[in-house]
Request: fold
Amino acid sequence: MALSFRPASLFQLEGKRALVTGANTGIGQAIALALAGAGAEVIAVGRSSMAQTEALIKDGGGTCRTFKADLGIPAERQALIEQAAGAFGPIDILVNNAGIIRRAEALEFSEQDWDEVMDLNLKAVFFLAQSFAKHVLARAGRGKIINIASLLSFQGGIRVASYTASKGGVAGITRLLACEWAAKGLNVNAIAPGYVVSNNTEALRADPARNAAILARIPAGRWAEPADIGGAAVFLASAAADYVHGVILPVDGGWLAR
Ligand code: NAD
Reply:
């Protein structure tokens, strides 16, 4: 058998265009930087300024476009893929990263905190994947979808009812879409980050007891930095993962192995 394994070319994303939602901070920003580092042109999408992400990518010699959209507004997310592709060209990779969390005891949990989290974390993820798939299939192309799941796609958690419901749902639709689209040239997978230093976990890190309990259970002995998630995104976006479908890939410092 010839030596056909060429790591450098398998993981390179030169000539690919990747749309990353919520790319201004945290995990989304780190994924945007990692994809750009692997050669992809990044479209950084969100409701806030993408200036920092754009500057970091440009300073590193990469290409970053920016596109403003509030994914909590149905009309904006419905139009997003076609408008971004119209402005910058065909999109090959979708990273469904934008997400929110609300914390309250289940006994007190409000409908508003249920609806807003489910709308952004689950409904927007499904319908963005749907419009991206239509966009790819209309040009008979190939595409990669990477959803951001969570440890709470596998576990219950506490005080985050709608978040747990939404991330369980993300794992479910990742598998469903993989089953429907794998043979059509679309790879649908998810990353389940462990406990990452970002806005999302500020409240946990500010609570000394929770912080210590979480740290004590992480085999790697530290919280993840957003950059720890980038490599998995490059892998799933690349040719190296062409036969990987419907996987929820934990990047968690060993948390789930415990
Ligand atoms: P973050 O709060 O820094 O990032 C969330 C991003 O979503 C931000 O860029 C924000 O602007 C964007 N966003 C929120 N509402 C939006 C809207 N209506 N329209 C467009 N963009 C919107 O936190 P993060 O930890 O980087 O979170 C990124 C993803 O990772 C989320 O899906 C989160 O659930 C997931 N996650 C985080 C952790 C963690 O430990 N931090 C663990 C597992 C999964």
